[in-house]
Amino acid sequence: MTQSDAPHLVLVDGSGFIFRAFHALPPMTSPHGVPVNAVYGFTNMLARLLREHVGTHLAVVFDAGRHTFRSDIYPQYKAHRPEPPEDLRPQFGLIRDATQAFNVPGIELQGWEADDLIASYATAVRKMGGTCTIISSDKDLMQLIGPGVCMLDPIKQTPIGLPEVEKKFGVLPEKVVDVQALMGDSTDNVPGVPGIGPKTASALINEFGTLEAVLAAAPEMKKSKRRDMLIEHADAARLSRQLVELACDVPLPMPVEELGVRELDKPVLADWLEDMGFGSVLKRLGMGHPSGAHAHRAAHAMVQASVKGAAAPDAAPAAAGPSEAATAAMAAAYGPYETVRTAEALQKWVSAAQEAGLCAVDTETDGLDPLHANMVGLSLATAPGKACYVPLRHEGTLEEPAGEQLTADAALDIMRPLLTDESVLKVFQNAKFDLLVFDRAGLDFSTIGPVDDTMLISYAQSAGLHGQGMDELSTLHLGHSPISYDSVTGTGRNRIPFAQVPVGRATQYAAEDADVTLRLWHVLHPTLRTNQALALYEQIERPLSPVLAAMEKAGIAVDRAELGRLSEDFAARMAVMEKDIYETAGREFNVGSPRQLGEILFDEMGLKGGKRGKAGAWSTDSSVLQDLADQGHALPEKVLAWRQLAKLKSTYTDALLRQTTTEDRVHTSFQMAITTTGRLSSNEPNLQNIPIRTEEGGRIRQAFIAPKGKKLVSADYSQIELRLLADVANIPALREAFALGQDIHARTASEVFGVPLEGMDALTRRRAKAINFGIIYGISAFGLGRQLGIPAGEARSYIDAYFARYPGIRDYMERMREEARLHGYVLTPFGRRCYVPGIQEKSAARRQYAERQAINAPLQGGAADIIKRAMVRLPRALKDAGLSARMLLQVHDELLFEADEAEAEAVAALAREVMEAAATLSVPLVVETGIGRNWAEAH
C-alpha cells in the first residue's frame, strides 16, 4: 500500500457525544413533541464533519448496552450510574437514525464498549500504515494518542495531542492507564487507591515508571498514609488498570475497507432533517428550507429568545432562528441545590462537569477587591437546574452552625483538574474577577481555560442597551429574578459579611448564580453569530479578560514621598485660594458646600441664571459655574479652580496614598462592560481621568515611577479618532494629509480658511484644531464659540465653512443619526453595536445629545476596538521577542509598559509595530512612544 493509499479513518465517539450534547444544550423538541437537543447537537456536528473532515473513511461508534466484559470482572463497574434522563432516552434511537440519514456507518457490538471498538479500529488502521482521528474529548481515549492516532474535541474543534494529554494527566499517553489505575474514576466507579489524586498519581508513575513498579516499591517508602494505602489497595489498583485499559483486539463488526466515505443521499437526508424540524441544518447544507406543515410545526415547537426594552425597530439584538433560539426554553426548576461538604461529593460534581464538557463557575468572597479578597465559597453548575455550592470559610452561629466544610486548599486541589482541563468550557459572569480570586487562592489564572464570560457575550452585542449585570440579564433573557445579595446579607448597618450567612441560605443564593450564568450562556452565545458579534467577542473581548487581569495584578509603582509632597502642596494652595474666595464673596463660608455657595451667588450677590433643584437649593454644578464665569464673574471662576485642585487632591494624591500596597504599587480595576462604545474604564483608583494638559496633572503623573533598573514606556495612538473620521467619512483631503504625514490641524485650517500652510499663525491653527476635535463630539456653534472665546455667530460661520469644504463629514454625521433612528444603534468600523437609547426622545435636548452620541460612537468605539486588538496581541509578541516587559495601564489611546532599562528601546519599537498593525485603514495608524523614569517623562 502506498502512502497515498493509506486510509485516514475518522471515528466519532457517538455514545460520548450523546451525553455531552444533552447536558450542554438546553431542552428542545421536534415538531412531533419529542426531545431532540442531543440529536440536534449530533446532527450539527456530523454535518460540519462531513463538510470539513479530511478523512477517507468514516464511522460513528456506539455503546451496544451496559453489560460488558468489565461488568463480569467487577460487577460494581458503572453500576452506580443512574438511568439516563427521561428526555434523553428517546434520543438514542434518533441519533442512530441521524447516522443512517447521513449515510455514515454506525458500529456497535454487544459486550464491548464504544471505547474498545474505537481502540481496536485505531490499532487496525495503524497496522495498515494509515492514520486515525478520534472525534471525542473522552479522557479514557487519550491513552490511544500516539503516532498515527490523534483526537479532536467535537464541540470546540480543538485538537488533543501529546501536549494536551501530558497537561491533563502529567504523563504521556502510554502511561495514562497507570495513572488512572492509581487515582481511580468516581464517574465509572473505578476504585483506584484512596487518597491518591491526579498529581500524586502522575508523580509516582514518573518516578517509578509503571503501576507494578510503584506497588513493588510501596513497602520501602517512608511511612505515611499514602504508603499504607498503596499496600492495602494494591489489588484494587491492579483491578482498576484492567478496567481502564482499552481492548485493542475486539473483532471488528465491519472491515476498515467498508468504511469509506459515502455520498450523501440528499433526498433521504432532506426528508429526515425536515421531519426533525432542523431547518437551519438544511439551509447550511444548501438543501433548501423547511416547508409546508413541517415548517409550520417547527416554528411553533421552538422558542425564540427575546430582548425587552428596544428603543426603536430592530433596536434589540436579533434572536437566532427557531432551532438555535430554543436555548431560551429553560424549563428546569431553579433549585433545590446541593451543599457540597466533602471531597467525595465535590469530586462527583467535578466528574459530572468533565463528562458534560461544560460548566458554570462562580466564587463568593469576603471583599470586592479580587487581589485581596478571600474565597468564602464556590459554586458549580453542570446543566440548567443542576448546581451546587461548596462552603469554605463560613463561620456559623450557635443557632445555625456552619457544619462540615472543605478547606479552600482541599477544594482547589479537587477543582484544579477541572479548571485547567482544556476539554471543558468554564463559563463565568465577569470572568476577570473570578480568575483573580482563584489566582489569589493559589491557582495561576493563566492556567485556567477555556473560559467564556456571559457579561462580555452580552456586552459584545448590546453595549448601551441595558446593564450587563447578572441579575439584569437574568430578568431580561430568562424571565427570572435571582435571589438578591441584599436579601441574603442585609443592608446598611445590618449587613453581615457573606461568611456569616447561614450555609443553607448561601447555597440557594450562590448555586443559583452559577445556574443562572449557565442558562444565560445557552441563551446568549448562539446570538453572537446571528448578531454578527462572534468575531468581536472571540477575537477581542474574551481574550482581553486575562490580559487585563495580568495588568491589574501587576499594578504600577508610585513614589509615596512625592504623593505626600503633592498632597501638602495642594492643601496649601487651596488654603490661599480660599482666602481669595472669601475676599471676593465678602465673607467666609464653606467653599465645598454647594448650598452655601448658591446662597452667596444668587441670594446675596444677585447673579442671574440660577436654577433651583427639587429641594429648593440653588444648583452650583460645574456647568452653572462655567456659565457665570464666561459672563465675567470672578467668584465662580475662582471656585472652579479651587474645585479642580480639591478633586485632584482627594481623587489622586490622598486616594493613591491610601490605595498603595505594601510593595508601593497601586492596582486599578478595569471595567470591561460599562461604556456604550466599548471603551475601558477604570476605578479604585481611576487612572484615566488625570488631566493631561495641566501642570497639576503632569505632577501627578510624575509620582508614577519605574522601579530601580526599569523604565516606563508609553505608546500612544496619534489622533486616532480623526484618522477614523477620515477613513469612514471618506474625506480625500484628510486622507491625503494623514498619508503625507502633514500637520492635520494646519491642513484643515488651510482647506477651510484658505490660508497657506507656510507661515500659518498659531491662532488659525488652534481654531482648526478646535473644529476638528469638536466635530467628532458634535459640537455646537455656542460650544465652539465659548471654547474659542468668539461670538456664536462667528463660530457658526467656521462650522459652515468646514462642512462646505468637507461635505463628506456632514453626510457621515447625518448617516449616523439616521442609522441610530432606524436601528437604535450605530456600528463601529469593526462591527461593534453601540446602542443609543435616547435617539427617539421627545425632548429636543435629550434627543440632540443622543445624536451627538451616535456621531461619536463609531469613532470612539472604533478607537477602542483597535487598541483592544493591540492589547490582545502584545503579551504574546513580547514573549516571542524574548522581552520581559509587562503592560501596566491602558488610558484610552495610550498603553504604558514597565521594561528593563536595557530592553526599553526594543519594547517601544515592538509596541509601535504591533499597535500600528492592529487594523488596516485607508490612512496610516501612527503610534508615538516615549521612555522615562516616570509616567510624565515617558508621556
From TrEMBL:
Residues 697-903 form the DNA-directed DNA polymerase family A palm domain. SMART domains: 35EXOc, 53EXOc, HhH2, POLAc. Residues 337-529 form the 3'-5' exonuclease domain. It comes from Acetobacter tropicalis. In addition to polymerase activity, this DNA polymerase exhibits 3'-5' and 5'-3' exonuclease activity. GO terms for biological process: DNA-templated DNA replication; double-strand break repair. GO terms for molecular function: 3'-5' exonuclease activity; 5'-3' exonuclease activity; DNA binding; DNA-directed DNA polymerase activity. It is an enzyme of class 2 (transferase). It comes from the Bacteria. Belongs to the DNA polymerase type-A family. This is DNA polymerase I. It holds the Pfam family 5_3_exonuc. CDD domains: DNA_pol_A_pol_I_C, DNA_polA_I_Ecoli_like_exo, H3TH_53EXO, PIN_53EXO.
